[in-house]
């Protein structure tokens, strides 16, 4: 009888850790169509012409400020921003020229993270995000965002009613 109770308890606990609506190891991808909404010319963006977001120092729950951390957050969602302009490493650039950047998120509210974005300084194909499963419904969430081109990009992460938006300038290696 004790074994049955323990087996049921373990099943309930494990069911809460994983979202049963997705297959194990499945990917969730969020895509938004991108349109130009800025009067900036479709030339190479610079730090001066791209309204890059600065960290606000709001530290995610359970994290500590470490050297190099550049936290941006609010009461429900946080990320660690890269320095701007962001210069991708050669291994971040795909053969088609798109740029994939790993972006950490912390969810203070329960739910699935979605990520959408748009290029601000020119028309571009859609941004896409890889959001792996297995991180539970709250807390840390690893992601990878693929930017089809360099440029000035606005990115918004959302979980339930919480959202966080940042702007990042992504330049090609060697570009200033």
Can you walk me through this structure?
The structure is a single chain. Strand 6 (127-132) and strand 7 form a beta hairpin. The protein contains one helix and nine strands, in the order H-E-E-E-E-E-E-E-E-E. A six-stranded antiparallel β-sheet has the order 1-6-7-4-3-2, with no helix packed on it. A three-stranded antiparallel β-sheet has the order 5-8-9, with no helix packed on it. The protein has 176 residues and is mainly beta. The protein has a single domain (21-59, 70-170), classed as Immunoglobulin-like. Mean pLDDT is 79; it is low at 1-43. The protein is globular, with a radius of gyration of 19 Å.
- Which consecutive residue ranges, at least 5 long each, have pLDDT under 50? 1-43
Mean pLDDT value: 79
Structural class by sheet pairing and helices? mainly beta
Measured distance between first and last alpha carbons: 69 Å
CATH level-3 fold name: Immunoglobulin-like
Largest sheet: 6 strands, antiparallel
